[in-house]
């Protein structure tokens, strides 16, 4: 994607956001550093951000006040982010939600769209991409990624995420991934695939 196209798209999206009366945005993400970065970035772009790190907190927030926009991680510590998208669409059918994931595949993308998401982005997603996805119209075609992650890369990212969740404990990570400890150690010793 060219830098010029991206800047034009971002400026158009911000201009479109200024026309919106309700700028409420719910972000549900269990990766706290990413959640904080994305929340700050979306606030600077004009959104009124509420952030949660669990499905239950997201559902509670929707119960109080359903936002106009939502950015939801697919896999959360206490459940599936699609439950949040579904609840939001029931409470507020005009809400625009996108799903973020590091483990994307066609089946989950189709499911996310069927549950009411307007787009599906791979993590780590740039704030400008998130804004463009939230404000895009159905007439606009989303550009295919120029560098999609390979299956090996997706697998490696998943293993790294579980490894970090287990506080870098190889034995616990191997148990959770249902693989032999030595196999996991060999994978962790290698560089990330492209």
From TrEMBL:
Response regulatory domain residues: 24-138
InterPro entries hit by this protein: ActR_PrrA_rreg, CheY-like_superfamily, Sig_transdc_resp-reg_receiver, WalR-like
GO molecular function (one): transcription cis-regulatory region binding
Keyword Transcription included in the entry's annotation: yes
Keywords noted in UniProt: DNA-binding, Phosphoprotein, Transcription, Transcription regulation, Two-component regulatory system
GO BP: regulation of DNA-templated transcription
Pfam families reported in the protein's UniProt record: Response_reg
Keyword Lyase: no
Extent of the signal sequence: none
GO CC annotations on file: cytosol; protein-DNA complex
4-aspartylphosphate, modified sites: 73
Protein name: DNA-binding response regulator
């Amino acid at each position: 994607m060219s830098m010029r196209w991206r800047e034009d798209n971002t400026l158009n999206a911000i201009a479109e956001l200024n026309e919106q009366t309700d700028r409420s945005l719910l972000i549900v993400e269990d990766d706290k550093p990413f959640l904080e970065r994305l929340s700050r970035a979306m606030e600077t772009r004009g959104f009124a951000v509420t952030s949660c790190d669990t499905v239950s907190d997201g559902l509670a927030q929707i119960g109080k006040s359903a936002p106009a926009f939502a950015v939801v991680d697919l896999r959360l510590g206490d459940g599936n982010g699609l439950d949040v998208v579904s609840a939001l669409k029931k409470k507020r059918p005009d809400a625009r939600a996108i799903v973020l994931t590091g483990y994307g595949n066609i089946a989950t993308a189709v499911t996310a769209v069927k549950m009411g998401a307007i787009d599906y982005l791979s993590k780590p997603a740039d704030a400008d991409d998130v804004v463009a996805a939230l404000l895009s119209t159905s007439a606009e075609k989303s550009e295919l990624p120029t560098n999609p992650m390979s299956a090996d890369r997706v697998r490696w990212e998943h293993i790294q995420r579980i490894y970090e969740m287990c506080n870098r404990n190889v034995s616990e990570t191997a148990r959770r991934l249902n693989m032999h400890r030595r196999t996991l150690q060999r994978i962790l010793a290698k560089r990330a695939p492209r």
